[in-house]
Write a structure and sequence with these properties.
elongated; Helix Hairpins
Length: 109
C-alpha cells in the first residue's frame, strides 16, 4: 500500500485540485444546462466523485485515513441516491412518457 501512496504523492497536490475542480465544473454545467433527468443525475454523481477524489488525495498527503473513511460514507450515500433517484425517474417516465424536466413543471399542483 505504501507504493501507491508514493506514486500519488509524486504528482503535485495542485494538479489534483485542478483536476477535481474541472470535473466538478463539468458536473455543475451538466446540472445547469441539460434538461434530461438522467444526465442531471449523472452530473450530480460526477460532482460527488470529484469530491471523493479530493478527499482521498488529501488523506494520502496528510497520512490520515479519516478522509478515506469519509469517502466510503459518501459512496454509500451515492449508492442510496442512485437507488432512490432511478426509482423516481422510472416512475416519472411511466406516468409522463418523458424524462424532460421542463415537462415535470406541471407536477407542482
Amino acid at each position: 500500500m505504501q507504493h501507491i501512496s508514493n506514486a500519488i504523492q509524486t504528482i503535485p497536490l495542485n494538479h489534483y485540485i485542478l483536476l477535481s475542480a474541472i470535473i466538478f465544473s463539468i458536473g455543475v454545467m451538466g446540472v445547469l444546462i441539460r434538461r434530461n433527468a438522467i444526465v442531471i443525475f449523472m452530473s450530480v454523481e460526477l460532482m460527488l466523485n470529484s469530491v471523493n477524489l479530493l478527499l482521498t488525495v488529501f488523506s494520502i498527503y496528510r497520512n490520515d485515513a479519516a478522509g478515506q473513511v469519509f469517502v466510503f460514507f459518501v459512496m454509500a450515500l451515492a449508492a442510496a441516491e442512485v437507488a432512490v433517484g432511478l426509482a423516481i425517474i422510472v416512475m416519472i417516465y411511466r406516468n409522463t412518457n418523458t424524462i424532460d424536466i421542463n415537462v415535470l413543471n406541471r407536477l407542482k399542483w
